[in-house]
Design a protein that fits this description.
Distance between the termini of chain A: 45 Å
Number of helices of chain A: 13
Low-confidence stretches of chain A: none
Strand content of chain A: 5-15%
Radius of gyration of chain A: 21 Å
Number of strands of chain A: 12
Structural class of chain A: alpha/beta
Oligomer: homodimer
Largest sheet of chain A: 7 strands, mixed
Mean pLDDT of chain A: 96
Shape of chain A: globular
Helix content of chain A: 25-40%
Order of helices and strands of chain A: HHEHHEHEHEHEHEEEHHHEHEEEH
Chain lengths: 398, 398
């Protein structure tokens, strides 16, 4: 029997999804599982997205341009990015098969195998996956839950920077922390990238989920850093079109777009039906974003108050996205998360959360932490928090 | 300004798509361009696929399972693979974001950077792209147009096999040659793989386009090779759903499926709307395949007769797919293909073809050859062949 590649053997299974079999088993027993483990929200997509799909006339489905249809790129430039203060042309944007592909292509464009990318820990776990698949080494800059995951000082970046460092990869607002980086934070990180000639890959897929008064500051607007910035975006969260698999890459650096175009040609084109609904979604009125934001502020406020009321639980209040990291009074949050699915029921209900260790690559970090996605309506979150609190109590007394 | 990775600089642009700017310029002048350059057919998708999309009720689009919805995997197993004599369970199939991703994940599962994969030359050019992106080396076994691209002897495979060889990657029926490998061919190649403990990655996306009397023989049915075979498939050509971006990987080797599942988790899920139309397409009646096949036999017969009537042109008659490689009486088919787009018009018409050199990695091979995709209706093909013949004459007399 032939041997698998070392890569195939060593790549870790998704920490976010690996507890799924236990959740499915619980459901088969008739247990209601509250999914706080994955960023799969219940907000409706804009009416215009639904209409675009209904009005799409299909006889067959040909390929689109590898970079996405010109119509969609133009609409993104004119209807969305212009509105949020990002001035780009249709030559500076490429449509991806979701933000996942955008991150994958961006790291490949900056780094060869053996090169290094700096990430701010805890980070979106698939950053590690895409780096690993390409033989790229992730160098973490640590942030601490007790500091509210505050952006680290530039000294912390300097400390992990080596001659093999090619890029900084960050997520703003952050998954899994919900931290929002201010204009000043971004300027400091930008200055570090300029000094060391690094790319800055800025994942801004949660841009519309900022709950502070300050507007979101895109890395594309860092003065003088035009040639260094690769902005990664997605419609998955913005319009709740996770299944459409449409994202994009934006850069003022023409060489970057040319390189990513070559990578994109090999996979032929992004999903055409996803492009159709996205084109429609871009006609969403401002009220769509406003009401979504208000709803998430309610959910955040409820969830964080509930978490921090539980004995021994601490979670800093996130300024954006729809995640929070909570420290639990347990030794192993992974064991607790599995136990909730296999052993604990309150009135035939349980809760699924994501153990946070996989968001860190510093060994031993995050072992007591979980990530919670507050993507349910408040009445559902209320029940989920009751179940979580009762579960924690029972787990400690077991 | 930061430097791009060597990979990003060195990866070749798509040979199939790099002449597109010249075609677009011709179209802007009002020239009609016959696209024989890309496998983008005009056949309607099954009615059931169109209906599935129309009946899909969307409020928002959540992720599906990373492996594709269970409903779709079950339908593929029961409605399609069982019918064609491939016996698998839903645990042995994973839905991909098109055949492209299936090939990418398959080579990564077999090979680490520096490992080698044997391909039969001329091969689908993106096999090279996916290998290159992963640092994998492509070792070609040469086949010759004058032999009708007949499957090489096993000695030719032995000659390129080294201790770093991990897999054979083939396409049956073949893109770009249209060659169909017989049961005996496949058994011989299978025996070679078994002897050297190699994976056999079998790309069977053109399975329904076999014009011989013998039924298509899937690598999955090679006796005793169950643990070696990774079959790659796609609905792009089968139902003319190229833009849906849905393919799949099938293997009896549980380790292979487990490894590919990990790769699939990092990109979250395949396109959900593509899964919806595919589920519908699987209800296509046998008459859909029969009439499509008859249509392509007409197109093939017409195209090959026309080509071989042209002075100095030779193209062996393909047994499957919808491509053929033709040798032209020119020194550089790339120069000719570009010249057709930039300089030649017959009654304001021209033809776009793909230079074949990029389907070879042996230097100097294929320089006089083009690939033609006979994906238009016969009356259109008739005009395209007239234009091609006139273009060839004018090019030689220029």
């Amino acid at each position: 029997m032939p041997h698998l590649s070392n890569k195939a053997v060593q790549i870790p299974a998704s920490a976010i999804r690996k507890l799924t079999p236990f959740a499915n088993a619980a459901k088969r027993e008739g247990v209601k599982v509250y999914h706080l483990n994955i960023g799969a929200p219940d907000i409706k997509s804009p009416r215009s997205a639904v209409d675009a799909l209904r009005n799409f006339h299909m006889e067959y489905l040909p390929y689109s341009d590898s970079a996405g249809t010109l119509e969609l790129r133009r609409a993104l430039v004119e209807k969305y990015y212009r509105k949020i203060g990002v001035q780009i042309s249709t030559d500076e944007i490429l449509v991806n098969t979701a933000g996942s592909e955008a991150v994958d292509f961006a790291v490949q464009t900056c780094c060869d195998a053996g090169d290094e990318v700096i990430v701010i820990e805890p980070y979106y776990t698939n950053y590690f996956s895409f780096a690993f698949q390409n033989g790229i080494i992730v160098k973490p800059v640590h942030t601490d839950i007790r500091d509210g995951f505050k952006v680290p000082s530039i000294e912390a970046f300097e400390a992990v920077c080596t001659p093999r460092t090619r890029a900084v990869l960050l997520c703003n607002p952050g998954n899994p922390t919900g931290v929002v980086y201010s204009r000043e934070d971004m300027l400091r990180i930008g200055e570090f990238c300029r000094r060391h000639d690094l790319f800055l890959i800025s994942d801004e897929v949660y841009r519309e989920f900022c709950y502070c008064d300050e507007p979101h500051f895109s890395a594309l607007n860092i003065p003088g850093l035009e040639q260094n910035v690769i902005m990664v975006d997605s419609v998955s969260k913005r319009y709740n079109l996770c299944g459409a698999r449409i994202g994009c890459t934006v850069s003022h650096n023409a060489e970057v777009i040319a390189a990513i175009t070559k990578l994109a040609q090999a996979r032929l084109c992004p999903p055409v039906l996803g492009q159709v609904v996205t084109l429609g979604a871009l006609d969403a009125p401002q009220s769509y974003f406003d009401s979504t934001r208000e709803e998430y502020i309610r959910r955040r406020d409820f969830t964080l108050a509930a978490l921090n009321r539980m004995e021994g639980v601490f979670s800093p209040v996130p300024g954006g996205a729809f995640y929070t990291i909570a420290e639990l009074p347990v030794d192993s949050s992974e064991d607790f998360a599995r136990w909730m699915l296999t052993d604990f029921r309150l009135d035939s209900q349980t809760v699924m959360v994501t153990p946070a260790a996989s968001f860190y690559c510093t060994p031993g970090e995050g072992l007591k932490q979980i990530r919670i996605a507050y993507v349910l309506e408040v009445p559902e979150l209320e029940k989920a928090m009751q179940v979580l609190e009762a579960g924690l109590k029972a787990y400690r007394e077991r």
